[in-house]
Amino acid sequence: MPDTAVKMSKGAKRGGQRPPKKLARTGSALYVWQRICQNPLALAGVIAICVMIILSILSPFFLKYDYSTIDMTSACATPSAEHLFGCDELGRDILARILYGARYTLSVGFLSVAISATLGIALGAAAGYFGGIVDQIVMRFLDIMAAFPQLLLAIAISAVLGTGFDKCIYALGISGIPHFARMMRANILTIRGQEFVEAATSINCSKLRIILRHVIPNAIAPLIVEVSMSIAGAGLAASSLSFIGLGVQPPAPEWGAMLASARNYIRLYPHMIMFPGLFIMISVLSFNLIGDAIRDALDPKLKD
Amino acid sequence: MSKYVLKRVLLMIPILIGVAIMIFTLMFFVPGDPAEIILGNAATEAQVIAVREQLGLNQPYIVRLGSFLKELFFHGSFGNSYIYGTDVGTELMSRFPKTLALAAFSILLSTVIGIPLGIRAATHANRAEDRVSMFISMVGVSMPNFWLALMLVLLFSLKLGWLPSSGAKGWQYYILPVLANALGGIAGIARLTRSSMLEVIRADYVTTARAKGVPEHSVIYKHALPNALIPIITICGGRFGGQLGGTMVIETVFSIPGIGAYLINSINNRDYNAVQGSVLYIAFTFGVVMLLVDLIYAYVDPRIKAQYEGQSKKRVKKVKGVGAGA
Amino acid sequence: MENNMAKKDQRFLSVRDLVVEYRSEGKTVHAVNHVSFDLSKGKTLGLVGETGAGKTSIAKAILRILPDHSTQRAEGVVELDGEDMMALPEHEMQKLRGHKVSMIFQDPMTALNPVKTVADQIAEVVKLHNPVTRAESLERAKKMLEMVGISADRAGEYPHQFSGGMKQRVVIAMALACDPELLIADEPTTALDVTIQAQVLDMINKLKEELNTSMIMITHDLGVVAETCDTVAVTYAGQVIEYGSKEDIFDRPSHPYTVGLFKALPNMNKDADRLAPIDGLPPDPTNLPQGCSFSPRCPYATEECRLTPVDSREIAPGHFCRCIKAAAKATTQEV
């Protein structure tokens, strides 16, 4: 009786009719990119990030004012044609400072996530693949790290390492490890149990080959979303650290640090706190929008 | 169920000890000599040596760690502040309610507003209303809480004069800090609820409920929501950690004398005993909250509850694997 | 075709011109295209076809539980006891669902709510449609569980504590809890082991006879049809391409697709070396052929088949077929 069913579908599979080919293969990098381009918000995010990077690099060459030139005659100047975003308490042009400062927030975001993703993925992969005692040790260590709220861990590490641009990257990078490691481990465990790995084993694939060609690529794909979202989170955390005086230090025009020194002038010169915060938000928002689009592209379940 | 509670509580202990060891070790490697910090720049060599002797700073790492853990877990003592000489534990105890109130009200506000918003977005998925609210929530997630705090102060304290801009002398002092800290949480929880609900709403058992003639309102709230809540509860617990972290920053903006302000002040003063105590206090609080979340989780999901009521052991492993992925 | 398909008094359910369209990635999916059929009281109609032929869409359209987010169009006339269900307001429809019309779903593993006990899930439908207390509805739920062969002791357990076959019994108990007059069974045995399949089918048949319920049996399994159905509608690409009594379809299949289905069956009596599968794939529902939807795979197709849409014609009393060749053949035979 059940054979009928099997035969019907088998018969149907012959011949073959290709589905219309428009998008690249689902899950491939090209496909993700195509999906981002189709999503106007994500595209806006990509453009915003690119524009910020370019302007940050080029701004010293085309802006009239240098980000570090002090001019007490225009201290706390409100926005005008001369100084579009106004000036800070030392008469430095805020627009020039913000554009120059983009390099801090963006590079802290990228570099700290590079650290947490690389170390986290390596740890998680080791724990997930080897299992047993390695898994136990790694997981207990991660449990302890995960017992701290992430920002608190970053603050504690900053307290030990001290302040500065590089220290800030390390602090955020280390505090992000548990998240990536746990996700990677879970992915590896899921994939290891799946049938295509058994299939690879059954055709006598070497263990190393299975890890490199089958397990790792499939486990990493879902983490791409996390990378984008984590860059957004790290950018936020970096500006928080600098704001409370732990990250990048003044006079460097880091946005959080700019806000910290502008705080004292909030009553009389609100423009000084308006613009740096706006730019933190735009850059974080851009990474979040990109991450969201990648998630949609990789997770077809939530479409339509 | 009581077996489960006991098991979870027992599992907490090694984690807490691990947390204490980790923080002690971190602080051990802080550059600078505590004796010199305590005595200030004017101290003589002899004084420094005397203080070192007195605090046991000459002892090797392992001995100091042992006495630290003994003091912490058997006497509940965090030691004395380097700068003020006061007992760190007492100081933290008096500051803790303010930090806890700030974090707890923020997470409460986040869930009470975020979950219904997310449900609404999910039931109106992909319509204009949903798209607009999801974009706004994305902006909310991306907004630095300390900047929002400053903007709120600018509007409600300085321009309108409705609310105080700093201090913690009454309930009205908490309105702006809680708002500033909760907005990101509201937005995040709304987004999460939406995606969790969207997944559940399309599940077969929701169609089954509709096919039974269950009214739409009950389909959403009685059939879909309890299932969607399972991941939401986990994330809300994690978010509480985020709120605690956010509180550290928010306290400095509003000059609220909580643990966050104390921590940051201590870091600036290089008062590492106080830093160590503050970090431990927050981490312990977070641990207790995560424990509570696990208990709620088990209560809501019968698949987890069942494992601890003497059911099949095979399923336990399966569910745990899933849990780790979440 | 509507004129003399069945005598009016026999019609319990009458479906006319049912159309369902979905929207997917900017394209229209023509899932159900002008489907019509009738069902008498106490009888069983088999809805047979390959995966993707629109069978489940037909069932969900009758109950009006198509997914909101992707359904673009659901139209037609569905008369139950002379009442057009498509025209009913939603709250009236809710009273019918689970009460007068109920449905058994394909996949028992996902059809039950994981956070509610099985008794609660059965009792809910009882409580919704009958003026009973909660205790009474739970009592009824336990009775239903025993009826489908599950001990009432297990009423307080959750779905994850049951095996697949047991879950399907729970789903069936839930569907029958309010003595429905029409039961739609959507591949009730596909997800089950072969040994359990027969048990579940027997049980459905027995319960159906006890309650004199009419049934639509959706399946891709001709064996199930032979065992349970009175009339059969063969669906292909969202259309009923052949419709008639079980004998009509099994003994005198007329549409080339139906003929192909039977040829693709292994025959235990003959020692055939190989089966004869139907070449090709069903058409893409976003881009249906202009003429007969089976024409791209049909060995007898002509230019006319490919270009002009084919209507359903009565080739023998009560036996309808959507094929110009079959209709022509029938006419010549009659003459």
TrEMBL record, chain B:
The chain crosses the membrane at residues 9-30, 100-122, 134-158, 170-192, 279-300. Its main location: membrane. Residues 96-297 form the ABC transmembrane type-1 domain. Keywords: Cell membrane, Membrane, Transmembrane, Transmembrane helix, Transport. It comes from the Bacteria. It is found in: Cell membrane. One of its GO terms (biological process) is transmembrane transport. Signal peptide: none annotated. GO terms for cellular component: plasma membrane. It is a multi-pass membrane protein. Belongs to the binding-protein-dependent transport system permease family. This is ABC transporter permease.
